[in-house]
Amino acid sequence: MNTDQDGFEPLIVALCCYWCSYTGADLAGTSRIQYPTNIRIVRVQCTGMIHPNLVIEALTGGADGVLVCGCHPGDCHYLDGNLRAKARAEAIEVMLQDFGLEAERFRLNWVSASEGARFAQVVSEMVEQVKKVGPSPYRVPV
Amino acid sequence: MAVRLAQEWLTICGGCEVTILDVGEPLLDILSKLEIVHMPVLMDHKLYGQTGENAQMEIPQADVGIISGGIRNEEHKHLAAEMRKKSKVLIAMGSCACYGGLPALANLSTVDDILEKVYHGSVSTESNGVPHEQIPALTDRVYAIHEVVPVDLKLPGCPPTPEVFVEAVTALLQNTPLILPGKSVCDDCPTIRERKTATALKRPLQPVEFTPGAPMDTVRCLMEQGFLCLGPATNSGCGGEGRTPRCIRAYMPCRGCFGPLADTANPMVDMMGALASVGVDTKQIPDRAATFNRFAGAQGRLRPVPTKGKMPS
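Above: the input entities. Below: the structure tokens describing the complete assembly.
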């Protein structure tokens, strides 16, 4: 992948919850909605299980951005998993500074199972904002 | 036959050696079974012969080698390699040897920045340039011993407790395996957790609430009282027989000297996650990297922070 600023194609890890956002991503696919191919989706059972070390490890391991998608507040299959994720997201945002990373590299969004178009839009926005900040300083040159 | 013991200190304050003296009576039993062949803190055994006549560094053959302190310069690297070569069993003693310790806080800066600050930048310094003759060069960062040579046993702690030291040496002398608990400080902590509540953070020197003389299990969890306690992300074992962690016994929060629970763990990330999920406003925590990795800055846990999207060279 090109790490040159002009033709820079970011690599973004997306952690999507099984009940809403992963199904939302599925819907985006079955509906043939176009979105950038820069993301690699990892399905998790609930955003409440995303401990900050998963996000920090991806970012310090060279990922250009991490996108976390979960159910809308009140919709969580496990009642309050997504609210936990929100509390942790604040800690992650604080820690980005400690690792010298830009705030744009992390994003938490709510996408329900019926929001295929919204998923595509969230991904496009994320790719756009990461492209603006450029390659991750932790990326190992190939 | 006596067990031959060699001990060497690298980047160290000498506290680990004091631990050995602090053992008390059990030391008498141990000493009679030990023959100390090399120990700079106790005996006059020089590395290049007593008058400096040898060209090669020479540490005598030993059954047990103990290294305290991490690796900061090329001489330390050389010494660690020589200790490994001459010892059948090599023990890393203390948090500096196991995880880098306090000196590894320097890993937040590059070597160039450190030299610049110390020899030019600080206000009270009259600059005479960076000394370079007759002294070993600094390594690019502070290393734990096992990052440079293989280590058979790690005894963490700043300093390790005399109990842990005696346990380790006795186990070696009797040829029995030494099993460190592998639990967190919270597992051994008797204080009570009432419920998860968000409290305002307190500074470490503010008083802990407790009734003088009352047993430890009547005290409320220090984290719940609002103190930053590294218990959840720190190895247990400092409590000795009674198991109650050392600092908690003195009504002080854990500072993390027994090191992280796993080699790959980063206490800062773990603690921030734990604090956020109990509702603490994590933005209030000052100097997070150094607070949570105070004793564990080697193994890549502390490193210079990239600025403007570029790694410092």
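Note for the figure: Residues 74-86 of chain B form the longest helix (13 residues).
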